[in-house]
From TrEMBL:
Annotated source species: Pedionomus torquatus (Plains-wanderer)
Protein's name in the database: V(D)J recombination-activating protein 2
GO CC terms of this entry: DNA recombinase complex; nucleus
Keyword Metal-binding (UniProt): yes
Similarity remark: Belongs to the RAG2 family.
Matching Gene3D superfamilies: Kelch-type beta propeller (2.120.10.80), Rag2 PHD finger (3.30.160.290)
GO molecular function: sequence-specific DNA binding; zinc ion binding
Name of the coding gene: Rag2
Amino acid sequence: MSLQVVSAVSNSSLLQPGFSLLNFDGHVFFFGQKGWPKRSCPTGVFLLDIKQNELKMKPAAFSKDSCYLPPLRYPALCTLRGNAESDECQYIIHGGKTPNNDLSDKIYVMSLVSKTSKKTTFQCVEKDLGGDVPEPRYGHTINIVYSRGKSISVIFGGRSYTPLAQRTTEKWNSVVDCLPSVFLVDFEFGCCTSYVLPELQDGLSFHVSVARNDTVYILGGHSLQNNTRSPSLYKIKVDLPLGSPAMTCSILPGGISVSSAIVTQTGDTEFVLVGGYQSENQKRLVCNTIVLEDNKIEIVERASPDWTPDIKHCRTWFGCDMGKGSVLLGIPGANKQLISDANYFYILRCKGTEENKEEELAAQICSQASTEDPGDSTPFEDSEEFCFSAEANSFNLDDNDTYNEDDEEDESETGYWITCCASCNIDINTWVPFYSMELNKPAMILCSSGAGHWVHAQCMDLSETMLLRLSEASVKYFCNEHVDLDKGLQTPKKAVYLKKQPMKPLRKKTTMKLSTPTKKSFLRRLFE
């Protein structure tokens, strides 16, 4: 086993715990970022380019008939093949957290449409489900089992928010273990059926599940209710006859008390278990080999790699399977790096150099190597691990098309998540759509004061009708802080007065008094 350092180039802020990776034809695709996608990659899906010990990202696209896929963190993922020997596969994505910390209960199916050296296109379809639909959750697992020429998915474990009827003001967003029910989901008909097995007494999350043929093995996991890591090893066998499915569960000896462990496949029936935690204050530095056969499982300890001092002394670590016997491990950078959210990354190779060649995975692996958000669980469950699952040296792409985060505008200063005013309460982690036209970003409007600046329509107390009217009309808008100032700075318009013509004064009526002789003389002249 060898350990190799990998550096993230210009995009370390995207590599935060909670991501997932999809492996299509040996290429790794990254999705599930902590915030909402930016304009450079609206799908939130990136091709990971790892070469010469450097990691870069290239945006991927969705086809026109695809649905919207939010950037889910801590979902359950697995591959779906037409049959156990099929080469082509799709990815099943269930549950997870949105950037607003809402939990999802939806199931998406992602498939590769086309890939060139310049562009990769996916199709994402949301599946309609009926029956006993699993509640929204995260930190769970999903596997595909095959029986009698048919396939079905198995969902187990995870965490969810406390039911509304049991919430209090102090613990409104607290999480609890999901009930220890096992769900079978038929993707052909969209039917969900839940099973209560007496062997499964406590809810588990961040466990490891490995499936082969018609059997799922569940190993380890953490229980919030008991604050323990289960040492039990469960074997769930599924039978798919013509009628209703049948399911049995048995408890096997030889389990391991571990949570957030990582599994990678090194052979047709051989797997390696790496990482995780064995208690609240102790990482698990021991590695194990898991051998699966048709009806049994064997777990034995194996030689561990030469861990670096940074790995040995760090408080938390995270990572996931990269496929073909490789694991990507990460540890917090703490104060050793200039970027506060930067991490150190290592690639752990569990196979010999001569064994690193192309081979298809015959078994389905779903290793939920994730942990909890701060404050939700025990100290070591706070690391929020994310998953990588593909070959590291399988890329040869043009560097000019690589995603560079430095090319993006800093949304913390000029984007949608700015503090637009003194009373601004828009937070990327708690925001929910307020207007009907909003989807994953808050509506904003330009204030025309000075050089102009953007403000959130919701913070300005604008109604939806007024917002639409302002967006359609060619008028200037001034925010609440500048509307009065703008009025005070305006020069009053010069009043235009109408020029009125002076009225002619009325002539004074005069009365002429004539004497009697004069009257007679006047009348004589008038009638002559």
